[in-house]
Structure formats: structure tokens, C-alpha cells
């Protein structure tokens, strides 16, 4: 018993591991506090710039815009090396990203640069660099979102639309979602907690949300078919792809993929129930059917889980 206590204490001291429930609760509180602190600092810098920006000369403005993100980036790297938990380094990294985003926006206004989707690629590169330097999942989330938006914007411009209108064609997100989903297959993240999960979940959201939208509004699709045919086709694709995601998650032991597939399968199912029965069916019967479908899904998932455990596989 004393050996295990010493071992736990060593892990807590060396790797900042939570060894009891109280420590886990405090760690969660520290994560929330660091997140709100970083957001508050970023917003404070944003309003500080706009409050006094007009009183500064152009050379001073450009110097501040260039120096601020670089200095905070170097500070983040230094704090990441010194800290075990990296709370302060993540705060510094998030503020550095906010300064960098503000940097490009303000430089564009100062020199009257035409807005372009390339800014999203630069933001994505900087945020991903910070994410890997500080092991910050929130920055990785922003980087993936920016990179996915950039690719979707470029695909939209290649099809002839203005780059800010890329969201009018949800199919623009299909290619970036596939690319993002494949990243963990080529890059190992042994030392980066939760990075594989963020890549896969973000990729699945980028593909399932457009399919869900197109299954209800087929007129915004690239496909030259009638809206009813497009909606029906995407409904089938949505059901099939969500079932495939559940199967793939179980097979590869990717819990996040299984759970995301479950969520979107239920969303597709309930959307169809709404289309079929909401207008004419009494509401108490409608929600009763929803409840029965939830119980049925629970039974099916429980059976799959029992079969999975029976094979001796630990997920």
C-alpha cells in the first residue's frame, strides 16, 4: 500500500496527475478559469486597441501589430517549457492568437488590403503551430475550423461564387472534412492529449452538418437534380454514413467516432419523423413514438456492446 501511495505521489509531482476526486475537481476548475481568463484577456486587448488606436501614428501601429503576437508567442513557448500543466502558456497562446488575428485585420485596414480567404489559411497555420507548441486543444479546434473554412472558400471561388458566400453551398466542406479526418492516420499524437479526437470529431461535424442541411434544403446543392431527389439522396447518405461511422468507431476502438455517428443517426432519424408525422399526428403520439425509438436504439446499442464485449475486445 505504501509503495502505491509513493508511486501516485511521484506521478502527481512529476506529471501533474490527479490522484483523487478532489484533485480532479480542482483541475477542472483550473481549466475553466484559464479558458475564461484567456478569453477575457483577448477581449480586453481587442477593446484596448480600438480605444486608443486613432491616437497612434501609422509606424507605431504597425510596430505594435507585428511585435505583440511574436512576443506573446515566445512567452507561450517559454511558459510551456517551465510549466507541467501549461495553464499559463495556453492563456498566453490564446491571447497571442487573438493578437495575430487582430494583426491581419488591422493591417488590412491600414494599408487598404483587399479581404481574401488567404487570411484563414494564415490564421490556421499560426493557431495549429501554437496548439502543438503548447498542447492546447482549443487552439487546434480554431486551426481546424479556419483551415476547413479556407478550403471550402477556395472550392467556392473555383465554382464561380464570391468567397464569403461559401456557406451557401454546404458541399464545399466535404473535401476538407475528408482531409482533416485523415490527419491522425499520418501524424502520431502520442504526446498530445485529445488531438486525434478533435481531428476526427471536427471532420465528422464538417461532413454530417452539410448532409443534414442538404437533406432538408436540396435547392442549395450543386447537383442538377430536383430538390426532392437531392433531399432524399442525402437522407439516405446521412443514414448510411452515420451507421458506417458507428461500425468504424467500434472496429477501430474510436469512441468519439462511434458517439458522433450515434448522435447524427438520431438527428437524421428524428428529422424524418418530424417530416413524416408532425403536421397531422397528435403531439402526444409523436413524442411517444420518439420515446419508443430511443428505447429501440438503446436496445440495439446494448446488444452491439454485449457482442463486442463477448469478443473479448476492450474499447
- Name the shape in a single word: globular
Poorly predicted regions:
none
Secondary structure: number of strands: 0
SSE succession:
HHHHHHHHHHH
Kindly state the mean pLDDT as a whole number? 82
Helix count from the secondary structure assignment = 11
Rg from alpha-carbon coordinates: 24 Å
First-last Cα distance: 29 Å
Beta fraction: under 5%
> What is the structural class?
mainly alpha
Share of helix, binned: over 70%
Main sheet record: none
Describe this structure in words.
The protein has helices spanning 2-15, 21-52, 58-82, 87-110, 118-134, 137-158, 174-186, 195-214, 227-252, 255-277, 283-310. The longest helix is centred in the first third of the chain and has 32 residues, at 21-52. It is built from 11 helices and no strands. It is mainly alpha-helical and 315 residues long.
Topology:
Blueprint: H1 2-15, H2 21-52, H3 58-82, H4 87-110, H5 118-134, H6 137-158, H7 174-186, H8 195-214, H9 227-252, H10 255-277, H11 283-310
